Amino acid sequence: MATNLGAYAGTVLRIDLTTSEVTEYPWTDDDRRMYLGGKVMAARILYDLLLPGTDALGPDNTIVIATGPLNGTGAPSTARFDVSALSPLTGALGTSNSGGSFGTYLKKAGVDALVITGRADAPMWLEVTEDGVLFHSAEAVWGKRTSEAQNALRDAVGRKCGTIVAGPAGENLVPYAALVSDERVAGRTGMGAVFGSKNLKGIAAHGERKAEPASKDAFRAHVKKWTASLKAHPVAGDRLPKYGTAGFLGKMDKIGILGTRNFKTGSFEGAEAICGETLAETRLVSQTGCLSCPIRCGRVVEIDGERVKGPELETLVLMGSNLGVSDLGRIIEWNRELDELGLDTMTTGVTLSLAMELAERGTWDAGVSFGKAEGLTELFSDIAYKRGVGADLAKGSRALARRFDALDIAMQAKGLEFAAYEPRNAVGHGLGYAVSNRGACHLNGGYGVAIEGLALHMNGRSQRGKHALVAMFQDLMEAISAAGGCLFTTLGVLPGPLVKGAEGPLGKVVNAVLGSASGVLRALRALPRAALGIPMPLVPHIRGVELATGMKLGFGGFWAIGERGYTLERLIGMRFGVTAADDTLPARMTAEPIDPGDLKSVVPLAPMKRRYYAHRGWDVDGRPTQALLKRLGIDRLPRVG
C-alpha cells in the first residue's frame, strides 16, 4: 500500500509459489509506525500468518524477506535485511540477518518486503523488478554452489542486481542450511532449507528507485556526523577495520570466554595462531564491507590465487578453538567451502564439536576428533548431501544429543547452537543465550558480552543488573535491526572514552552505575513510551529513522518498536510450544564450574531468569502478560493477511 512516509518504497508483495500469483500484502503507514521494518515487521506478519502445527518444510510455511527504512538511504552500515520463517532446525521462529546487496536492490525495485508462501512444482528462481515479479525455471542452476548460482542469476538478468540463493545444503533440506547474498550469509536457523522446501533456488532484484528521506538536507547532515562518529570510535573506527570481528578473539581468550573444545573451557593454547592480528599480518589481502558501510570489517584473503571472503570471528572460534584446531589456512578453506555449500558455519562447528566429545566418551565415532583437521572438507559435502555419517550430523546438535542422551554437553538452546562466547565467565551473555527467542543467539540474546569484557569490563560472573541490561539491549538491537542497521554499529553507542578507559578508574565507575541500573530501567519500562520522547544522541539510529521517514519517535518510540518485536517473537514461540522450560542452557553451563577452584563459576540461570521475566512484564512461566500486550498495542487477535 502506498506510503506518505519518507524512505520506504511503499509496497509489500505476497508471492504464492504454488499458483505463481503475486498480490500486494496489506501494510499501512500505521503498521510502519508500529513495526518499522526488518525482523519486527516480519514478526508481525508471521504472527498473523503462521498457524499452529505448520510444517517448517511444508508449503504452508511463510518466508518474509524484509528491509528497513534506512536501507538504500546512504546512512552508515544500513545494507542489512532480514529473512524470517518457521525454522526447520528449532521448530519455532527462525530469523536470519544478512548484508550483501540484496536488500538495497529490493528497495530499488520498489519493494520493501516479500511474503513468500506455497511450493513450486519444479525448481524456480524469482526476478523482482519495478514492473513486477518474473518466475524463471531453475533447472539449470539447481545443484549449483552459491557463487556459481549467483553468477548464473546475474547473467540471466543482464544488469546490476542483488541476489540471494540457497546452496546444495538448502536443496537437500539440511535444517541449518544458509542463504548467501554476494559473499554475505543469512546463516542461522535454516532459511536455506525453507527455500529448498519450496523449490526456490534464489531471487534476483533490480531497479532504479531511490529511497528518498523525508528531510533530505537534515538527513544528509546527520549521516555525515554519524559516519564521522563511527570512524572516530576505538572499536568501530579502529579495531574492526584493522582486524575485523576476529580482532576480539585474543581478548576473549584472555578473559576466558573463548569457546574451546565444545565449550569445556574458555581459553585455547592456539588462540594467537587464529586471531585477527595474525589473520591481518599473514593472510589479509584487503578490507571490504557491505554497501554504505564505513567500518569495512570484511576480510579478503587469497586461496589458490583466488580472492575470497575471509572468516569472521564466529567461524574462527567455532571451526577453530571449538574444534581444537589452530590451522588458520584450514579454517579459511572451510569457511569458503561451507559458504559455497550453503551451510551455517556456526551450527556446523558446534555439531562437530559435540561429535568429537561423543567420540572421546566412546559413545559414537563419526571419524572426527579434537585437533584433527584432515577429512573435514569432504565431511562438509557429506553433510550438505546427507551422505553416510553426514546425514546424522546434518540434523544439528540437539537432534544428535537426543539420540545419544547427551543434552548436557550439546551447546545449544532451543535447538540453536551457541555463538563463539563461553558464558560461564559472562553470565549476562549466558542469560541472553537462554531466553533469546531464536535460540542461543548472541545478538537476539542482547550481546551482553559487549559489557562483560569486549568493550566495557563489568564483572562477568556477577549477576548484578544483568537481567535489566540484557532486556534493554535486546529491545534496542531489535529496533536497530528493524531499521536496516548493522548491529556492529551498536558498539559505537558505547562512548569512545568509556571504551578506552574501561580497565581504569573510569571503567570502575561506569560498571558500578550499570550494575545499579536495573531500578531505573524498570521504572522507565513501566512508563508510557510517549512519555519518553527525549532525544538520544548516543543512539544515532533514532534520529536517522526520524529524518528518513518523518516519524516522531524519540527514545521511547524507538524502544517500543524493539520491545514490540521481541514480544511478538515470544508469542510466536509459544504458539509452537516454547515454554519457560526451554529458556535453559546445557548442564555444562549451569552445573560444571569453569574454574575448578570456584564452585560458583557457572551461569546462575534460575535467579537471573526470574528477575528477567518480572522485568519484562512476563509471568512466572515466561508468558507476556495482557497488561504488557495492551501497553504495546498487540493485544488484538491476529489479522488476516
Describe the structure.
Helix content is 40%, strand content 12%. The chain has 27 helices and 17 strands. It is globular, with a radius of gyration of 23 Å.
- Record field, number of beta strands: 17
Instruction: Give, in spatial order, the strands making up the sheet with the most strands.
Output: 2-1-6-3-4-5
Shape, please? globular
Tell me the major beta sheet.
Answer: 6 strands, mixed
Write a concise keyword list for the protein shown above.
641 residues, alpha+beta, six-stranded mixed beta sheet, 27 helices, 40% helix, 12% strand
Give the topology.
Elements: E1 12-16, E2 21-24, H1 29-35, H2 38-49, E3 63-66, E4 81-86, E5 93-98, H3 102-108, E6 113-117, E7 124-129, E8 132-137, H4 146-157, E9 162-166, H5 168-171, E10 179-181, E11 184-186, H6 191-197, E12 200-205, H7 216-231, H8 235-243, H9 249-255, H10 271-274, H11 276-282, E13 286-288, E14 298-303, E15 306-309, H12 313-318, H13 328-341, H14 345-361, H15 376-384, H16 389-393, H17 397-403, E16 412-413, E17 416-417, H18 427-435, H19 466-483, H20 496-500, H21 505-515, H22 518-526, H23 540-549, H24 554-575, H25 587-591, H26 605-616, H27 626-632
Parallel strand pairs: 1-6, 7-12
Antiparallel strand pairs: 1-2, 3-4, 3-6, 4-5, 7-8, 9-10, 9-12, 10-11, 13-14, 14-15, 16-17
What's this model, at a glance?
With 641 residues, the chain is an alpha+beta fold.
